[in-house]
Design a protein that fits this description.
mainly alpha; globular
């Protein structure tokens, strides 16, 4: 992660997320932590990443998710040139290493 972003508070946030035990705890924590709009934005970006990984075209992604082409482009840039965060999650989801 960009060292300018990784301060003590960010470290605590990530440690808190890692401490969650199951899907229900995760949902409760994020519901308390985030606004509905923030949660919808994050879930939309993940869906965009999953669709890009499946080689969907931007127009289909925008139609299905409601994401702007700017959001789709940013997620695509992260998938191709980012910190591998989306890739790690997508690969684990494909392998079934998540609680659904």
């Amino acid at each position: 992660m960009n060292q300018k972003l990784m301060d003590e508070n960010m470290h605590k946030l990530f440690q808190a997320i890692l401490s969650l035990k199951d899907l229900q705890e995760c949902a409760h924590f994020f519901e308390d932590l985030c606004t509905v709009s923030e949660l919808k934005s994050m879930s939309q970006r993940l869906e965009v990443a999953l669709m890009l990984d499946k080689k969907y075209v931007y127009t289909d992604i925008a139609a299905k998710t409601g994401a702007s082409t700017a959001t789709i482009s940013r997620v695509n840039r992260c998938l191709n040139y980012g910190s591998e965060g989306y890739r790690a999650v997508i690969d684990r989801m494909k392998a079934g290493k998540h609680d659904a």
